[in-house]
């Protein structure tokens, strides 16, 4: 690490370092994003695509989008982390809309029901727990949460799919999330 970068590192936050390096088109920005945010961002993607190797591929694609579109980051609109999360989530949603993804999903065999004792991975237990929580919601809220968070639809797409006003979709999702927070 050069003396200049160490000097900068002592005075500014990691987000400011990343933004500065991105603006300078310095590839170290991508390294810092990976080093500081990769696990969280991959998890955001994983919630949409539900496949770890695919989530890692989408993350790489998202990093390219961050690199190419770094000029579109605006600190006045939100933090760097929020922007990175949005880029990753949008990349994941784009992936689910791709022909390749749909064909992969069609080719997968039906999912077997697994008892909780058969689950070996902590993520599987958390996924099952999340579904059990969502199952406690009223039917329409359950459907909205499923479409938004498990299938990756946007609120606008949900409104169109269910032929429901966008404001109603937003309100019901907000109420569902409020209810989930109260039971956790």
Record keyword descriptors for this entry.
mainly alpha, Rna Polymerase Sigma Factor, Chain: A, Arc Repressor Mutant, subunit A, 2 domains, 10 helices
Can you identify the CATH class of the largest domain?
Answer: Mainly Alpha
Number of strands: 0
List low-confidence stretches.
109-117
State mean pLDDT (0 to 100 scale): 81
End-to-end Cα distance: 44 Å
Helix proportion: over 70%
Major β-sheet profile: none
Shape descriptor: globular
Would you identify the CATH H-level superfamily of the largest domain? RNA polymerase sigma factor, region 2, helix turn helix motif
Write up this protein:
Residues 109-117 have low confidence and may be disordered. The chain starts with a helix and ends with a helix. The longest helix is centred in the N-terminal third of the chain and has 22 residues, at 28-49. Helix 3 packs across helix 4, helix 4 packs across helix 5 (80-97) and helix 9 packs across helix 10 (166-183). Helices cover 74% and strands 0% of the residues. The chain folds into 2 domains: 3-105, Orthogonal Bundle (Rna Polymerase Sigma Factor, Chain: A), CATH 1.10.1740.10; 116-183, Winged helix-like DNA-binding domain superfamily/Winged helix DNA-binding domain (Arc Repressor Mutant, subunit A, Orthogonal Bundle). It is built from 10 helices and no strands. With 184 residues, it is mostly helical.
């Amino acid at each position: 690490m050069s003396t200049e970068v160490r000097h900068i590192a002592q005075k500014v936050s990691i987000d400011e370092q990343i933004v500065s390096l991105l603006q300078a088109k310095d590839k170290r920005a991508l390294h810092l994003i990976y080093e500081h945010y990769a696990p969280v961002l991959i998890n955001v993607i994983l919630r949409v695509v539900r496949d770890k190797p695919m989530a890692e591929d989408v993350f790489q694609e998202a990093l390219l989008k961050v690199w190419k579109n770094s000029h579109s980051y605006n600190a006045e609109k939100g933090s760097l982390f929020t922007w990175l999360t949005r880029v990753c989530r949008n990349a994941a949603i784009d992936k689910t809309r791709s022909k390749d993804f749909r064909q992969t999903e069609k080719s997968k065999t039906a999912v077997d029901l697994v008892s909780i004792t058969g689950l070996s991975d902590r993520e599987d237990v958390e996924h099952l727990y999340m579904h059990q929580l969502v199952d406690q919601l009223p039917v329409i809220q359950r459907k909205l949460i499923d479409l938004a968070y498990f299938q990756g639809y946007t609120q606008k797409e949900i409104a169109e799919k269910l032929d429901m006003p966008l404001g109603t979709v937003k309100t019901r999702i907000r109420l569902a999330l409020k209810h989930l927070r109260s039971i956790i």
